[in-house]
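Can anyone check this?
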Amino acid sequence: MAYLSDCRPGVGRKAVAQLSEPDNLGVAHTCDAAGMWLIAGLAGALVVATGWLPLHDARVVALDRGGPVLGFLIAIAILAVLADRAGVFDVAAHFLARIAGGSTWRLYLFVGGLATMVTVAMSLDTTAVLLTPVVLSLAKQLSLRAEPFAMLVVWLANAASLLLPVSNLTNLLALQHAHMSTLAFARAMAVPSLVAVVLTVAYLCLVYRKDLRGDYAIPAPAPPKDRWTFGVCTAACGFLVVGVVAGAPPWAAAATSALVAIAVFIVRAPSELTGPLFPWRLVVAVEGLFVTVAAMGEHGLTALLRHLVGVSTWQTTVVSTIASNGINNLPAYLVVEPAIPVGQHRQLLAALIGTNAGPLVLLWGSLATLLWRDSCRLRGLVIPVRRFVMVGLGGVPLVTAGAWVALVLLVRS
């Protein structure tokens, strides 16, 4: 088992560095997710080149809709990588191992809390890529079975991404489409998000109950390598959440936080700024998906989905869940959104339940899941596809149904 051997500060950074020629957020040339950017980019170029989507329409979709989303994506990716290099995730995980007091089940709950916070504040991809190696390293150091912790991370990377616009790109798109404020969005999704997280943790505790028995030896403290970079990057992550909740555009709050993180590294550790920071493959993938899905919508897909989702929030959640597992959650949201009647905010949020908490049956349901699988596999942990599917078939209906019930009971329209 090729796990990392310790949980010292910098372990997450070293683990990410083991990926084959990694780009930002761990998209490696050798991983399952690597082909997505190429396929999406070529598809988008082909759509425009053939005139299937007029050049003017493609420009509107790519810039007007994609611009703010990509601005956030780039900034949050840079912030996440620098926070990881500052040891933020390592120190947090090690701290949890100590305060759990040697109890495996208590540590499991604490790791779930950390995964939830990272997802809410810094997006599901950050959780899947940067927290996964830290958790696997921690499990190895404590002589605990890694699979329960790995599954907890990927499930919460998806299921916990309902609360804030910054938690998932689909949320940013929904916020943009519905012209909602961040506070209105968070108020509407607070209880559904809480329900999704609680049901996810409870379900996985039941599935892995035998592995969560017993104790472990409490590890020694592991302070950060540089307290300035650690402290400033931690504060920058906190500022991102505060800024977004206060009403700042997500891209602006993320950009400010990223610039602060860059500044402290320039002063304290300029050598750590080497290596790729700009997530260009993800940019190509997102833009290609925007253009391709827009073309498909104009050529009949929107009309078909409008018939399937109707005006029912439950049908919308089911269709979004199935579509996410079939074609990936971002294109699934992009094709479902135009089928929802204008002004039906509750139905739009129901679609997010399917696209955010639903893509956990098939491995390509979300980019975060693909990246998580590669991160696990490169560290010697291979979870069989059949195992992943069976856990998903048992949990996804429970989590999405619970979040949907909370939504329809608390959100009027």
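Reply from J.R.: I decoded it. The CA atoms of residues 184 and 277 lie 33 Å apart.
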